Amino acid sequence: MKRPFTIVALMLIGSFAMSQVASHAPTAAANPASANNPTREPSRQVMGKPVARVNGTILTDQDLVREMYTIFPYARQHSGGFPVTIEPQIRQGAMEMIVFEELVYQEAQRRKMAIPLARTNRAEAEFKKQFSSVTEFQQFLRVEFNGSQQLFRQKINRSLLIQDLLKVEVDAKSHVTDLQLKAFYDKNPAKFEYPESLAIQSISILPPKNASPDVLKEAATRAEEAFQQAKATKDYKDFGLLAEKVSDDDFHVNMGDHKMVEASKLPPEIVKAAAAMKPGQVSEMIRVGNNYTFFRLNAHVHAGKTSLDQVKDKLRSDLEKEKYNQVRSDLNRKLRKTAKVEVL
Length: 344
Hints:
Residues 4-43 have low confidence and may be disordered. The chain has 13 helices and 9 strands. It folds into 2 domains: 7-176 and 319-343, Porin chaperone SurA, peptide-binding domain (Triger factor/SurA peptide-binding fold, Orthogonal Bundle), CATH 1.10.4030; 196-302, Roll (Chitinase A, domain 3), CATH 3.10.50. The strands form 3 sheets. Strands 5-4-7-6 form a 4-stranded antiparallel β-sheet. It has a 3-stranded antiparallel β-sheet with strand order 2-1-9. A two-stranded antiparallel ribbon has the order 3-8. By secondary structure, it is an alpha+beta fold. It is elongated, with a radius of gyration of 32 Å. 51% of the residues lie in helices and 13% in strands.
């Protein structure tokens, strides 16, 4: 999952405690499952308990649960917290993320990367904008960092270091050039081809199976009357209202509209008739057995291939997301190869 490590992302540090801050409840940190703290499950006690050790550095249940809410923020909206059926997967994903972040941070330290003081100050100022007052920010510091401004700034620096290393090792290596884009397009022509398709509205008169001669005669009369009315319609709406009134097929509830359908999925009689029509025209009557059908052609798209110019923006985005995930996974494996990671 691609997640930018900017100062905006750093705000996730406080998102877990924001309900505590907003409630102005001094006891919220001691009782994380209280009514004043709806962002946590009633049964989940977050006590700073170690959950993992990464090269000797302890990660706590506070880190883990905060990340779980980042992955599944909807849990904040329900008193029951995380759905029981998917909580194990959320927990596993959160564990993998906090371990990965710690490995990235330690790698940044090993490379002796540093954040200029001015940048830290800007990041701190940006972060504080989410609070409505100085008092509210001080409440946040008490809940998350025992009131320590120094610990808070260390957390900002940690986030910025993670961001910088990922820019070098993941973001920069995930870029897809124009040449790579064209090479993928040329090597995968089938991905950009599209079939012949038709957009039609239909009206069908469908007498019951084993209908008597009189019923069949009445159906033929209804079909002819409906056909004459259809030929007199002026536009999509007129034809659709008629379909809703007289048609027996399932599409009559939607103004007879089939939307855009691949030609291969339509009866060959309709496809053949459409080949000689222009959009806006009504077909001749088509009889198959005792059934009668005619249709309005709204659009006819012939088989073709989307040009590179038409798809390049989305294609680049898709390829870069795929490449980002691959490069990130490679970095994770590389960092874990020489690391000691223990889940406690």
